[in-house]
Amino acid sequence: MTDVTGVAAVEEIRAEVLRALEMAATEEQLEDLRVAYLGRRGKLTQILRSLGSITPEVRRETGAAANELKEVFEEKLAARRKVLADKKLAALSGQEKIDVTLPGRPYLRGGLHPTTRIIREILDTFVSMGFAIAEGPEVEWDRYNFESLNIPKDHPARDIWDTLWVDYTDDSGYRPMLLRTHTSPMQARIMETVNPPVRVVVPGKCYRYEATDATHEWHFYQIEGLAVDEGITFGNLKGTLYEFAQRMFGEERKIRFRCDYFPFVEPGVDMSIDCFQCDGDGCRICSHTGWIEIMGAGMVHPNVLSSAGYDSSVYTGFAFGMGPERIAMLKYGIDDIRNFYSNDLRFLREVGD
């Protein structure tokens, strides 16, 4: 290949490609041109690949001309594509009319999960009463989940919680670890690190090894509350929970406390509200009792205070715990707790409306 032949071949291709670009009338024809000249076997590609087999003098001039043509071709190819696209758009705008009176396309809007909504509503209620919010680990030590809460090893009260244990061994040997069965361990954790007064609510997920049904799940949310200070009485507990229940369910609600047993409080109570569906007359929602239990509560046991390093002769406190999904079921009329974890968009839309 001579100098004249190499550069002449590039100029010949230049004339061909520029003429072909002007004549191309469709996107398909432009793509065919790109393949014919810049594809793996394209004419311009073949010249660039053959540069290594010619003399340096010819290679320099031929390579410069070929690369310059490649840049020009790519620029004019893009410009021609834009011209064709503009013509196509102009043709469509002349054929199709836009009816500006038609409504716009609706955009799907997401929302908070009903569990998230009710947790935030509950927390906002207690924050407005001076409580702080804290969170803790879902994988917990036996010490915090049971022992610090007045539930020593082999205590029959441990049977209340169907525990999922985790095998854990370190240099000191086996250490009992579990998926927390309630959010109450945070009582001990907080009191170990914070001096009184304490006012805190703790939201979080809990786990229990039990069968699921319309009112039970093996994993669920719980909200724990704790208040410790000098001179706190059962009257403070009642007043706080009265205020919470009336804000959540209406000021006309009646409240009932009945004795109950929880190892970490003494005395312990369960708290119920009169049924908002039947106003206490009895219906399916309240199992025809007229009352709906919403939480357990009580005065913090002196052993729990002492275990955390508090002087139980000086400080007293109250604690309470509730399932926000149970609260949501009551408030939104949901009859099966499993719906919260079914990922059924129909349910989520219905509750979210």
Topology, pairings included?
Layout: H1 3-23, H2 27-38, H3 43-49, H4 56-95, H5 114-127, E1 132-133, E2 139-141, H6 142-145, E3 164-166, E4 169-170, E5 173-174, E6 177-179, H7 185-193, E7 198-207, E8 219-230, H8 234-249, E9 255-260, E10 265-274, E11 291-300, H9 302-307, E12 315-322, H10 324-332, H11 345-352
Parallel strand pairs: 1-7
Antiparallel strand pairs: 2-6, 3-6, 4-5, 7-8, 8-12, 9-10, 10-11, 11-12
Helix pairs in contact: 1-4, 2-4, 5-10
Describe the structure using short key phrases.
2 domains; single chain; 20% strand; 353 residues; alpha+beta; 3-stranded antiparallel β-sheet; 7-stranded mixed β-sheet; 12 strands; BirA Bifunctional Protein, domain 2
What do you see in this structure?
This protein is an alpha+beta fold and 353 residues long. The chain folds into two domains: 3-94; 114-132 and 191-352, BirA Bifunctional Protein, domain 2, CATH 3.30.930. The chain has eleven helices and twelve strands. The protein has helices spanning 3-23, 27-38, 43-49, 56-95, 114-127, 142-145, 185-193, 234-249, 302-307, 324-332, 345-352; strands at residues 132-133, 139-141, 164-166, 169-170, 173-174, 177-179, 198-207, 219-230, 255-260, 265-274, 291-300, 315-322. The strands form three sheets. It has a seven-stranded mixed β-sheet with strand order 1-7-8-12-11-10-9, with helices on both faces. The chain has a three-stranded antiparallel β-sheet with strand order 2-6-3. A two-stranded antiparallel ribbon has the order 4-5. A hairpin with a 4-residue loop joins strand 9 and strand 10. Helix 1 (3-23) runs parallel beside helix 4, helix 2 (27-38) runs antiparallel to helix 4 (56-95) and helix 5 packs across helix 10. The longest helix is centred in the N-terminal third of the chain and has 40 residues, at 56-95.
